[in-house]
Amino acid sequence: MAYDLVTKNGHNMYDMASMMQKAIRRNNPNLAGYAAYELFGNFHTYMWKRLVVVSAEDCYGIMTKEVIALKLADDFCNKGRKGYDKDPLFAAKAITLLCQARKNRDACYVACNFMLPDRILDESEIEHIDITKCHLGVEGIPDWVFDVHTLTGKRNGKTDLDMTIEEQAALEPKQMSLFDDCSWENYYTWARSQGKVGNKEWADFQQFKKGRKLEPDYNA
Length: 220
Prior knowledge:
The protein has a single domain (about 15-125, about 140-210), classed as Zinc Finger, Delta Prime, domain 3 (Up-down Bundle), CATH 1.20.272. The chain contains ten helices and no strands. It has helices spanning about 15-25, 30-40, 45-55, 65-75, 90-100, 105-115, 150-155, 160-170, 185-195, 200-210.
């Protein structure tokens, strides 16, 4: 039997992972907490891996060490427990920290454009959340969850460029950073050469990059 990638309330596991990350980018702790708790029982390790990625990909400063410390605490305090018998305190703390952290996507930009395959918060200011009480509103899962990395997004014609533009614009709270106005020229040129970008997306990219600067020349 194939492994069942369905969460506690019947959602697709990858959709919940997408919602958790995108809700963190938007500083929406309710939806981030709901998605995290959906993953918490049967996809506990994957949830933590995704939170570590978010800390590096979407957050300003050295947030990754905070999330890893919380993961270690989760491992220690929940040793021997299974599924929803585990205490969600440490996952909730990670969601809280990441939602309220200042956001930028410089790390993602550097990884995509300069590292191609062929080439912190004051504790007293943090309002903690209880992910076990987060809920999905009557409007259901937001449309922004379904990007090119989800089956629904692919069926709806979403592209990698759509995600680049929409997720950069959605960051909250935003930290203005080095690559905010850059063109993504290196990444999309490489992706085009690999057959990952179709004609329409390439044409959309040509419009997107107009007026944007190329990568900084550190040797100038």
